[in-house]
Amino acid sequence: MVAGNGLLFPIFGFASCVAFIYMSFGDFILTNHREQRELSFVERNGTQFMVDGRAFYINGWNSYWLMDHSVDEDRKPRVSAVLEAGAKMGLTVCRTWAFNDGGYNALQVSPGRFDERVFRALDHVIAEARHHGIRLLLSLVNNLKAYGGKTQYVNWAWEEGIGLSSLNDSFFFDPSIKRYFKHYVKTLLTRKNTITGIEYRNDPTIFAWELMNEPRCISDPSGDTLQDWIEEMSAFVKTIDKNHLLTVGLEGFYGLKNPKRLAVNPELWASSLGSDFVRNSKVPAIDFASVHIYPDHWFPHLEFEDKLKYVSKWMLSHIEDGHYELNKPVFFTEFGLSNLNKDFQPSQRDRFYKTIFDIIYKSAKRKRAGAGALIWQLFVEGMDEFNDDFGFVPWERESTYRVLTDQSCRLARIQGITQQNNYLKELCLQRQ
């Protein structure tokens, strides 16, 4: 009957056309429906980070778990939730792992073999960060065993019968292991995001790459082995990606070849870890220095007030080095106060954070090398099993939330609040 009045064929033709368009471009339509913010690459000018010709001072955070949670659909919403929360707090950079070597939800299953499902999870993290106007500091491997780390690389080489040694530090000098790592780095940096269509090395959502989380080479306290590795790997990264900044991932300890600074170290043990803040950070391909702040781990028996005094000394020493020795930004990429201290009070965290934020703010006001800080670490509700003694949900304690957001607004006023996202504009206008 419908065919008789001539309606069926036009309708059928229209439906076929719609089906063809969807089959051809459906993935594009589904994955590009969200607004993607326009971002510029972060650059460096001497001791300052720069964006669009303006100084860029950073208040941000760590959430190491973003890729891992993006693999599973039931945990995926947590990623968007924490990125949105960070943006609403005026935070601008999140540091997270771009590695998981071997084990559960591994990105690199074995040398040169990758799980596309996990790679798509990292695609999602980067796309979500861009949507919320957050830049990412992506770490490439762990010195620790968590998520594989250098131990997994050594085990792979040993199992294949090509490893020179079962020593964990052979990661830094074994030619086979270095080839493994270079292949991983090249694969990651040239990855084309399945959501945005942008290769990682061309995506300004990525603030910078970090060679390793907290590198140590205890087998060579002279520091020469780690120094050679940093020089080789940093140069290799820059042959692939000249758009992004690069850092080592140091904790900030001074080595045996820097005797004038040894007194700044927590204790004698810190000078024998095979790393050296100044020497490692001076490598030409390294764009900025990184430092961590954990007085609880370094001085477990020290009174809280004395810990605060040490934190100030520690930070000012490194900012001075950045200004006079390195001519590079100094970025405090991890800091935290443990809730396991026998005298712990939540109010202590507020004072600890404010001590760090005040030093960063004063450095920024004076245009010195203190470029920003990333709190360790932020979560959303229902993630207790992933927490440690440093993490917290920021909005569960109003005073802590206020300390973090006040710092965002102070730094925004220095660099020009009009350059920030809408969340930050609204937040800071309320604080005036």
Automatic annotation (TrEMBL):
An MF annotation (GO) of this entry: mannan endo-1,4-beta-mannosidase activity
Matches recorded under Pfam families: GH5_mannosidase
Domain (Glycoside hydrolase family): residue spans on this chain: 40-377
One GO cellular component, as annotated: extracellular region
Transmembrane feature ranges: 6-30
Annotated compartments: Secreted
EC number: 3.2.1.78
Keyword line: Glycosidase, Hydrolase, Membrane, Secreted, Transmembrane, Transmembrane helix
Name of the featured protein: mannan endo-1,4-beta-mannosidase
The organism's taxonomic lineage, starting at the top: Eukaryota, Viridiplantae, Streptophyta, Embryophyta, Tracheophyta
